[in-house]
Amino acid sequence: MSYWLMKSEPDEFSIEDLAAAPKKTTPWFGVRNYQARNYMRDVMGVGDGVLFYHSSCEVPGIAGIARVASAAYPDASQFDRKSSYYDPKSKRDAPRWMNVDVKFVKKTRLMPLDEMRAHPELAGMRTLRPGNRLSITPVTEAQWSFILDKLGCR
Questions:
Q1: Residue 101 contacts residue 69 (beta carbons within 8 Å)
Q2: Residues 44, 123: Cα–Cα separation, whole Å
Q3: Is beta strand 101-112 parallel, antiparallel or unpaired with respect to 73-74?
Q4: What is the spatial distance between Cα 52 and Cα 6, in angstroms, rounded to a whole number?
């Protein structure tokens, strides 16, 4: 089992939106970074843990827990000419972009970015590194356990 931090802008899709989605599940689409795509395509597995992170908002931070609910499959938005995620270079027989389904587990209290940075146990988190802009980053088992403990999820 692996663990991930996945960022979403709450004005576009929040933890509340995931909780309200049919079957509490949604495709994690629109990723247009090769490294993040590779995580979904090559590393993520069904059942992996997800820290749902609200980004690009007044108080960014971890807002809930989710699980990876499917294997990777082609992101349909890359083929939709009306989508802001349309990619004219991507072909149906050789899709460039992938997504996985994510399933809601629990909304938590917000663990703000500043609080995350204050814990030495989280100092190695990739998402806390200067200049990190990836929307999907791996989380170690120790970091996952520490965060769940701090959020009261155990």
A1: yes
A2: 23
A3: unpaired
A4: 5
